[in-house]
Automatic annotation (TrEMBL):
Its EC number is 3.4.11.2. GO terms for biological process: proteolysis. It catalyses: Release of an N-terminal amino acid, Xaa-|-Yaa- from a peptide, amide or arylamide. Xaa is preferably Ala, but may be most amino acids including Pro (slow action). When a terminal hydrophobic residue is followed by a prolyl residue, the two may be released as an intact Xaa-Pro dipeptide. InterPro entries: Aminopeptidase_N-like_N_sf, M1_LTA4H, Peptidase_M1, Peptidase_M1_dom, Peptidase_M4/M1_CTD_sf. PANTHER family: LEUKOTRIENE A-4 HYDROLASE. This is Aminopeptidase N. Its main location: cytoplasm. The lineage of its organism: Bacteria, Bacillati, Actinomycetota, Actinomycetes, Kitasatosporales. It comes from the Bacteria. Belongs to the peptidase M1 family. It is found in: Cytoplasm. The keyword Ligase does not apply.
Length: 443
């Protein structure tokens, strides 16, 4: 996705104002972007798709704004000097029906309607359908949300509820602060008839699930496992990296869970069905809070670091909690690995954008981590993992950063071992398992 993200400035904060009316109904919205120029700017771009543009100002003065595909090209009345702070405000009419389709695990993304509101699925590059943004997985900024809802509806967003004001007409203005910088693909804002279910996790961590009213009893049993999942993961990855956590139950038929920061989205079917499947999805999205959210990817070809870790620990947990055995799952992935390489590219080298969220980035990338564990041993592998998330917490990193850190912790150069696993056309032999064989590749 080479056109996503823009140079010339860094964003210090986004402030989003949404005046919600009804499902699938356009509504008034504005985005204020506080930024700093990293070069002299006579114009600059924002990622912004669809939505009816009303007015753009820079530092309170009207600016020229022209659409160029998914780019909004803004020309301020006066050039912005290098190092200059500036504020952009974009007023528009938001369209909560905007979606795009992918042929991989993402499926539909953007705005996802629910019976009485919406949830957001911005991954990978759908945030631009929701608000004007500098949309790249390596770029993060704090976000303030102001969401006005009609009587009877609630709103939730990443982070902490800092204010809830009821107006004389019954409308409510909800203000949330993300508390941490957040990447555009991890933004969440949901509206609906919600119950807010509070709890406490390890070390007093505030937990709050957000559940459509009719789904509270049916989803309770699996949602109640979050504290246990946190404890299990903290033993392996270190302290949970954010100030709060919760599960947002999506009242939608879209069968996709998503790791939006500090508030993971789980479709209702995930939490109303089989416990083993539910726990796999709950653990997977929770792992992402460490790897993918706190430790972000530098570019989309590094996605294996995010999805591979989430699938690795999901499979490891499930293997001791009623699911398929961990080694059995890894052997199955090994047998299919050459086919996945052929179809979708190597783990760290997707063959195209269309093949990004394919099985290779999930089980195929978890297998790379399994191979590393077999190579260096469990104790060294565990030290690598904890060092990975503690060293790079709050930063965006890439594949070579992981190879270098693993080599340093292991006390041996692992680049010659990991490079064929990450980039090669064929799957290397699995350490400790000389009898494992990839299946023949079918064209």
């Amino acid at each position: 996705m080479p056109l996503d993200g823009n140079g010339g400035y860094t964003v210090r904060r986004y402030t989003l104002d949404f005046d919600w009316t009804a499902p699938r109904t356009p509504f008034a919205a504005s985005t204020t972007i506080d930024a700093t120029a990293t070069q002299a700017l006579s114009r600059f771009d924002l990622d912004f798709a669809g939505n009816a543009l009303r007015e753009v100002t820079v530092d309170g003065t009207p600016a020229r704004a022209v659409r160029d595909g998914d780019e909004l090209v803004v020309t301020p009345a006066r050039p912005i000097p290098h190092g200059g702070a500036f504020t952009v405000r974009v007023d528009y009419t938001a369209d909560p029906t905007l979606q795009r389709h992918r042929g991989d695990a993402i499926a539909e993304y953007g705005w996802v309607p629910t019976p009485d509101g919406t949830v957001l699925y911005p991954q990978p590059d759908g945030a631009k359908m929701i608000f004007p943004v500098n949309d790249h997985p390596s770029l993060r900024a704090p976000v303030t949300f102001h969401i006005t809802t009609p009587p009877g509806l609630g709103a939730v967003a990443n982070g902490k509820l800092v204010e809830r004001v009821r107006r004389p007409d019954g409308h409510v203005r909800w203000t949330y602060d993300s508390e941490h910088p957040v990447a555009a693909q991890l933004i969440q804002m949901a509206i609906g008839k919600f119950a807010f279910v509070a709890g406490t996790g390890p070390h007093g961590l505030p937990l709050q699930d957000v559940v459509p009213d009719g789904l509270v009893p049916g989803t309770k049993a699996y949602r109640a496992l979050t504290s246990e999942h946190l404890t299990w993961l903290e033993r392996r990855l270190g302290p949970y990296p954010f100030r709060r956590y919760g599960v947002l139950v999506a009242d939608t038929d879209l069968p996709v869970a998503l790791e939006t920061q500090s508030l993971s989205v789980l479709p209702r079917a995930d939490l109303l069905g089989d416990r083993i499947d539910a726990e796999r999805n709950l653990v997977h999205e929770l792992v992402h809070q460490w790897t993918g959210d706190s430790v972000a990817v530098r570019r989309w070809s590094d996605l294996w670091l995010s999805e591979g870790h989430a699938r690795f620990y999901e499979r490891l947990y499930s293997g001791t909690h009623g699911g398929d055995g961990f080694e059995s799952a890894m052997r199955t992935a090994y047998e299919r690995h050459d086919q996945w390489r052929h179809d979708d590219g190597a783990p760290a080298e997707p063959s195209s954008d269309a093949h990004l969220f394919k099985q290779m980035r999930y089980d195929g990338s978890a297998l790379v981590l399994y191979a590393l564990r077999e190579k260096v041993g469990e104790q060294t592998f565990d030290r690598i993992e904890r060092s990975w998330v503690t060293t790079y917490q709050g930063r965006a990193v890439g594949t070579q950063d992981f190879v270098a850190l693993a080599s340093g912790v292991a006390g041996q150069d692992l680049s010659a071992f990991l490079t064929p696993w990450l980039y090669g056309a064929r799957t290397p032999p699995m350490p400790g398992h000389p009898d494992w064989r990839p299946d023949p590749v079918q064209d």
